[in-house]
Design goal:
Elements lengths: L3 E5 L4 H17 L2 E8 L9 H4 L2 H30 L4 E7 L3 H11 L4 E5 L5 H7 L2 H8 L4 E4 L1
Parallel strand pairs: 1-2, 1-4, 2-3, 4-5
Length: 149
């Protein structure tokens, strides 16, 4: 059935539950898992580019030292779940302007045939204003998406 499952994680308690579910599913069907987390690259807009100076370099250092450490902790926690279940896995950190597209692109790049991801279940005005990465993945993905709520 499914051979490679992509499980995005953002370190939240709900995404940790999706990690557990994705690993359990992978174990049951003999699939491998790819864990990913997506962060945004640096963007700076100013009418005076000379005022920006070395900010992209400084930001990249910040990303490398802080955000990479944070996202690595999410990915290592997910890997620990897979290792404990004796499920083959890999981890993949992506920088992309659009989180949902980063997830979809990673699924294609790693040749995954299923995405298992959490949904925070926002409703009403917060769903309209904040949107949902899960909804965007559902509407734009060419491969099946299993939503954990």
């Amino acid at each position: 059935m499914y051979k490679k499952i992509l499980v995005p994680t953002d370190g939240s308690a709900l995404s940790e539950k999706a990690v557990e579910h994705g690993v359990a599913l992978a174990k049951d069907i003999g699939a491998s898992v790819t864990f990913t987390t997506v962060t945004s690259p640096f963007h700076m807009i100013d009418r005076e580019p000379r005022l920006i100076g070395d900010m992209p370099d400084e930001y990249q250092k910040y990303v490398h030292e802080y955000l990479n450490a944070e996202t690595d902790s999410y990915l290592q926690a997910a890997k620990a779940v897979a290792d404990a279940a004796d499920v083959s896995c890999e981890t993949f950190h992506v920088q992309h302007d659009q989180v949902y597209q980063g997830i979809i692109d990673t699924a294609a790049l790693r040749e995954c045939d299923l995405i298992v991801m959490a949904s925070h279940g926002r409703r009403g005005l917060s769903a309209v204003v904040l949107g949902s990465e899960t909804t965007k993945v559902l509407t734009h993905s060419d491969i099946p998406v299993l939503v954990y709520r």
